Amino acid sequence: MEAKLVVSSSPHLRAPETVQSVMIDVLVALFPAALAGVIFFGWRGLLTMVLGMLSAMVAEAIVLKKKNIFGDGSAAVTGLLLAMTLPPAPPWWLVVIGGVVAILIGKQVFGGIGNNIFNPALVARAILMASWAGHMTTWLRPLDLATAATPLATGVEGTSFINLFVGAVPGSLGETSAFALLLGAAWLFYKGHIDWRIPGGYLGTVFLMGTFFDGSGSLMQMISMGLFHMLAGGVMLGALFMATDMVTSPVTARGRLIFGIGCGFINMLIRLFGAYPEGTTFAILLMNAVTPLLDNLTLPRKFGEVAKQQ
Amino acid sequence: MSLSFKTFRGGVHPGHFKSATEKKPVAPARPPALVIIPMGQHIGAPCEPVVAVGDEVKKGQKVGDTQAFVSAPVHASVSGKVVKIAPCNHPLGRPVKAVYIESDGQDMWHEDVRPNPDWEKAGPDELKKIIRSAGIVGMGGATFPTHVKLSPPPGTKIDYVLVNGAECEPYLTSDHRAMLERPADMITGLRIIMKTVGAPKGCIGVEDNKPDAVQALKNAAAGYSDIEVHALHTKYPQGAEKQLIKVFTGREVPSGGLPSAVGCVVQNVGTCIAVADAVCFGKPLIERIVTITGSGINEPRNMLVRVGTPMEEVIEQCGGFKPNVRKVILGGPMMGLAQPTVENFPVIKGTSGILCLTNLEVELYDIRPCIKCAKCVDVCPVSIMPLFIGSAVEQGLYDRAESSNAMDCIECGCCTYVCPAKRPLVQWIRMSKADIAAKRAKK
């Protein structure tokens, strides 16, 4: 018996959380928005999400030479997130290429989980956008699935805020329902996987810039423009699920806040002054690039540091 | 008065696991037939034996001492005969020279051990001398010699003596029982320490999951206006020295500095009682309360154990190990030291607990890549970046670990506790600290 005593370094107690359980929490949090996508855009929406997850998971399993394709769950999260940023009914091969590109170019070339600089789903989306712009901008109206333009293209007039909030508007598969996205994000808040700083900084900046740089007329009209910018397009999905990606966002508290504000700022610059109607993808990718810098510039004051200088 | 609302940054909330022993009064262990008295039971210079094989010794007689300042003498915990001087196992992993004493069953006290009814007349220097000669060390587990802690640099004014009754380590209940069963002696010990360092104020902090101990201490301290008892928020590591000072006084011990730099001295519950025993009754530190617990032991208990009692004997008095025991930890589960064996292994002054875990709880984890979730950053009580230091050490970059403030780590283990990638962060930080300290010593 004695020979079998285990000697290991303290602490001898560990929290039950694992990388896999964190990833499952994210999948659970994405479920309401995915369900909304299926309700609004039908079986083609479901197919897109299943294909996105499967292609990412299979690509990762092949690269890592593992038989268990779910693994730590991170590929499933990447695949689902990518699918949710695509139009509701893209060609099947576009989704598969996206899933494979996300894992290979977005993640594994950097050394796999934890080492990628950019959000893998957004890397894939940017590449698809540059390669098949037509397929990537074919939007459908919910329920009757007729071709339609997104609220960001049509403008605030004629857009119902109720529809915008529940998600009954044309747009990417998983981005339209602010309500479902907020519901899912509440789960991540509850589990402690995200804090308020990135979503708060992001959405707050979008709201303020929308109000003051795009709004006009009475104060109420200006505020409704700010709200419109928060609810329309990919901002909600980006602020709650893409910018908060642990691997590619800062680890310091102040860094996270600056990161969120930066995402919102660039996103609004592109929307207001850029050639694209939407800028979530590029805003977050650009801020991903400065994440290591933000971390270094915002290191917290260590315990006892000021006292030493006195 | 409660300080529950006041707390420090970071920390974690592991399960308490205290219910197995918290209601069990301290039971005296059977006097051992043989005791093993290691010469090094403290931080600092080890002692040299002052007895020889064949000598007759009595209980409380000094058997090892040294001239070094940072050290504490060791004493016989039974009366009997010195049968051998040989190395024994030690919690830090390196065998230590020890005096083996066979008991004569008489349990006779040495003639120097006698009550000192006039202790209130003693001055600080005399008190320090008594505390040193009684071999008292910090009994929370760090075992720093108490008389050294009570000798701040000249010119330092001590405003507070803080007593750590937090017992924030899960499983352990030895301090809890001591506070319940000997509150008056603890207050006496605190008063002696306050007098020794000239502190006008004494504060006792107890986590608010032990309301009975808070009440017992409040009753015992009722007559002393200069002593306060506070309930503290239950959070690990509430009992960490610098965190406790921050909670009570709002002062931050400077990086690399000692509590005396901000006018504080922190002592453990058990240390206060040992000081009272030494100063009032002349008793050196030859026994301590040990919590023997965990699902790997048949009858978890709190026991009053003679220093030097072979651990196997203590375990046997608790019904023995369960067949599936896989890990034996000296101290608590967050900072305690896992041991490869309990043979030829005595209970020493710093043994606050013997925690026995079974194969159901002992897991070996695959180390996964860091996903930068920053949970370690959020829980770190000293606001360093465990993930960066860990990655640096993983790559052998000790210089980078140093510039990332590895030396400020208090080794509480919160980062490793929360890490979802199961990275042994505090182990890596400890490795870098050893490397950095060795490099600094060379310079």
Description:
The complex is a heterodimer of chains A (310) and B (443). Chain A is mainly alpha-helical and 310 residues long. Chain A is 62% helix and 0% strand. Chain A is built from 15 helices and no strands. Chain A has helices at 19-64, 74-85, 92-104, 120-131, 133-136, 151-154, 161-166, 178-191, 197-214, 219-231, 235-242, 253-273, 280-289, 291-297, 305-309. Chain B has 443 residues and is of the alpha/beta class. Chain B is built from 13 helices and 17 strands. Chain B has helices at 124-133, 146-149, 174-181, 183-197, 211-220, 241-249, 269-281, 311-317, 375-379, 386-394, 398-403, 414-418, 425-442, and strands spanning 27-28, 34-38, 48-49, 56-57, 62-65, 74-75, 80-88, 96-103, 160-165, 201-207, 227-232, 264-268, 287-293, 301-306, 325-330, 337-339, 353-358. A 6-stranded mixed beta sheet of chain B has the order 1-14-13-17-15-16, with helices on one face. In chain B, strands 2-8-7-4 form a 4-stranded antiparallel beta sheet, with no helix packed on it. In chain B, strands 11-10-9-12 form a 4-stranded parallel beta sheet, sandwiched between helices. In chain B, strand 7 and strand 8 (96-103) form a beta hairpin. The radius of gyration of chain B is 21 Å and the shape is globular. Chains A and B meet through helix 1 and helix 15 of A and strand 15, strand 16, helix 9, helix 12 and helix 13 of B.
